[in-house]
Amino acid sequence: MAKIKCFSCGYIGAPDIEDDGESGIWWCPECDSLYLEILEGDMTDYEKIEWIHYAIQEAMNGNTSELKQAIGLLEDVREKYMKD
Questions:
Q1: 42 phi and psi, to 5 degrees?
Q2: Which of 5, 19, 52, 62 has the CB geometry, 3.0–4.6 Å to 37, for a possible disulfide?
Q3: Does residue 47 contact residue 17 with C-beta atoms inside 8 Å?
Q4: What is the pTM of this model?
Q5: What are 40's strand-pairing partners?
Q6: pLDDT tens-digit series, residues 46-83
Q7: Would you say 33 and 9 are in contact if contact means Cβ atoms under 8 Å apart?
Q8: Residue 21 has pLDDT above 80, yes or no
């Protein structure tokens, strides 16, 4: 299970997850914020790509705080293919 940090209230721990039929929507169990940083956890490549997609959408709406995390996730996925 992933460990998150909430940018809104500072909560650190496991996220609440709602099944959306794909990878799930994560939010803070303390304040219901969606503004989270993933601290650790085993994410699939699909979950990483979904997070990157979310970060790009947020940036398009003016919230660029997720882009640094998204770049790190993109590098993780990309490294698998660069080694081949």
A1: -90, 105
A2: 5
A3: no
A4: 0.55
A5: 3
A6: 878 887 888 888 889 898 877 887 888 888 888 888 87
A7: yes
A8: no
